[in-house]
Amino acid sequence: MKAVVLVGGEGTRLRPVTLTTPKPLLPIANQAFLERQLRWLARHGVDEVVLSLGYRADAFEKHFPDGRFDDVRLHYKVEDEPLGTAGAIKFAADGIDERFVVWNGDVLTALDLTAMVAFHDARRAEATISLYEVEDPSAFGVVPTRDDGRVIAFVEKPPADRAPTKWINAGTYILEPGFLDRIPARLNVSVERETFPRMLESDGALFGYKSDTYWLDIGTPQKYLDAQADVLAGHVGLPPTAEAKEHAPGVWVQGHPVFDGAAVEGPALLGDGSVLAPGSIVAQSVIGPAVHVGRDCRIERSVLLADARLGDGVVVTDAVVGPSASVGAGAVLSDLTLIGADAHVAAGARLSGARVASNPMGESTSSGGI
Which end of the chain, N or C, is more open, meaning fewer C-beta atoms within 10 Å of its C-beta? Predict the structure, then answer.
């Protein structure tokens, strides 16, 4: 089976981390998010994937230099200009003449894709949308359906007390090749706001597949951290990565981290070659490969990406420290602070909700903070 994966977005809400690494290649529990989801697709029979690219297309080709991941063959389609979700699907799916899957590259999910395909086939659907129930649908587009799953309306971001349903569009679609005829070529068109609603006007065979399996849009700093915690907690299966070993209950290690004299409280993951100096404390966090944490540091509910360096006495709470970034002794990072790749935080700095990026001169710039 073939799939189109939409990974062309700029990931602006996760800047400056996404200035150097596109969001789908950011690690979730020390594995690139896209790799994790390609394995999910492969488990359900997908062996060929077209990546619909825009922002930093070169990074994907560099990450997958052989044009494959495990047993999944990869093809690249790069948009010259933004085409919207529908336009991107039509552009990337050019030449596909069989039923195919579309997955939105913002979504971490454990959806039973095999069951969704069976649902689609049983109803002879032209398009099937995955649906997920949320407590507050006011930030989403909701999709009411009949008892058999046929979609009857699309309601964009309704007030919670007036929403006709709590089932939202969850960003995975099963499409027949004829669906592509509904999308004009080379135009910026939204599949969610334009193509799907127009199907209802023509009585198209559009269905919604309801699933209560794990689903999360990772596109904000808080959701990116939530995804790490959920993967460590086993919400999408254990181990959190294929090569991780459980050192103690809830404490996972990859390769050979060094943490004698440090305290690690699960759920947590320590990457290969990482070093935690004596007196440091790590709780509910992901430590990337080759990270160095100084003495008497405390890291809670945070992510330190590959090769990051923390001086002595640093406190990191609910924050992300980017690859090869450095944090000076005694600094405090909190409240969804994001430190970009190669950036430097001065000793003793106190940053709350800040964004720190390295500029082309090798110096760091920041916004926010206290």
Answer: C
Which residue would you say has higher pLDDT here, 365 or 318?
318
Instruction: Convert the pLDDT of each residue in 281-321 to its tens digit.
Output: 999 999 999 999 999 999 999 999 999 999 999 999 999 99
**148 burial level (CB within 10 Å; 0-12, 13-18, 19+):** exposed
Integer CA distances (angstroms), 233 to 98, 212, 237, 252, in order: 37, 17, 8, 11
Q: Where are the domains of the chain?
A: 2-211, 235-367
- Picking from 77, 74, 75, 99, the residue whose alpha carbon sits closest to that of residue 88 is 77
Active site includes 157?
yes
Rounded Cα gap, residues 358 and 340, in angstroms:
7
Q: Is the dihedral of CA 55, 56, 59, 65 positive or negative?
A: positive
Range 263-272, long-range pairs (CB < 8 A, 24+ positions): 266/232, 267/229, 267/232, 267/233, 268/232, 269/29, 269/30, 269/232, 269/240, 269/241, 269/244, 271/30, 271/306
Say which residues have a Cβ less than 8 Å from residue 207's Cβ, sequence separation at least 6: 119, 120, 123, 125, 127, 128, 129, 145, 148, 149, 150, 151
| Helix (H) or strand (E) run with residue 122 in it | helix 113-122
Mean pLDDT, the chain, as a whole number?
93
| Superfamily name with CATH number, domain 2-211 | Spore Coat Polysaccharide Biosynthesis Protein SpsA; Chain A (3.90.550.10)
Residues constituting the chain: 370
Instruction: List b or e across 77-105, with b for residues whose CB sees 16 or more CB atoms inside 10 angstroms.
Output: bebeeebbbbbbbbbbbeebeebbbbbbb
Cβ(108)–Cβ(214) below 8 Å? yes
> Token pair 């440091």 is at which residue?
280
Question: Two tokens at 146?
Answer: 């009949």
Q: Which pTM value belongs to this model?
A: 0.92
Same CATH topology for 2-211 and 235-367: the answer is: no
d(CA 155, CA 286): 38
Name the catalytic one among 23, 77, 90, 157. 157
Where residue 353 falls (left for φ over 0; alpha for ψ -120 to 50; beta otherwise) is: left
